[in-house]
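Cross-check.
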Amino acid sequence: MGSDQAESLRRMLAPRVTRRIAVVGSDSGAGATTVALGLANALALQGERVLLADEDRHGARATRLAGATPTATLADVLAGRMPMEAALGTRPASGVAVLPSGNVPASAKLDGQSLPGMRTVLIDARADAEGALSPMAGTAHNIVIVMRPEAASITAAYACIKRLHHQFACRHFQLIVNMAATEATVTALARNLARTASQYLGVEAGLAGYLPVDPLVMRALQLGRCVVEAYPAAAATGALRHVASSIGAWPLREDAQPLGAAAAVPA
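Predicted model, tokenized:
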């Protein structure tokens, strides 16, 4: 709790920047929604106003697990068709603001002016059929790759990093390993992936944290809830809160442009 209070104070004194964080699953089942929703809840516990943009158009999984009932999309809010508070509908008990992304155009801007009061925008990102991210996710200040400690998922994580580097000129990535057995395994895995990405792509991939194997994560999903909100003392909750407390120290992507400039980024 002491570290959370210190982090909250540091955030209040820091320059007001609406940080955009895209959470990307290396492959299906990696746990991107669990991480995105968990980080949103953990940041809310630190007293931060956070918006979770749900790009899952078919399942709206993050929206359902949050217990949110939005009446419009983020695209509607950015276009001025609906005020933010009206679009959010009934807010979940956690206080996390959740909106389906809708068709956010490349000309839209996600900042303190268009999203007043929001300090962080977390994007539960979804790739299209060709593996490409939306401009909103691809131009985020930080891109988090969620993967499992399995060969196929690790290979997919590297392919994802390579694709995003070429599509959006991303050079810095945060790694979160889900369903990890031991810290030593995670550290070795992340070190090897970071070395490969640096050697062959010239990009940096740092370990942001890991979620241990925790049956309460699955139990929370069965209840249709987020583990951070449902089980505050769970091991996975502690891990997510630890990652959330370190976000303020993540370097803002220097070449991250306002979303309105995304159209100029070469594919």
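Residues 2-13+21-248 form a domain with the Rossmann fold fold (CATH 3.40.50.300). Strands lie at 19-25, 50-54, 97-100, 120-124, 142-147, 172-180, 204-212. Passed to J.P. for a second look.
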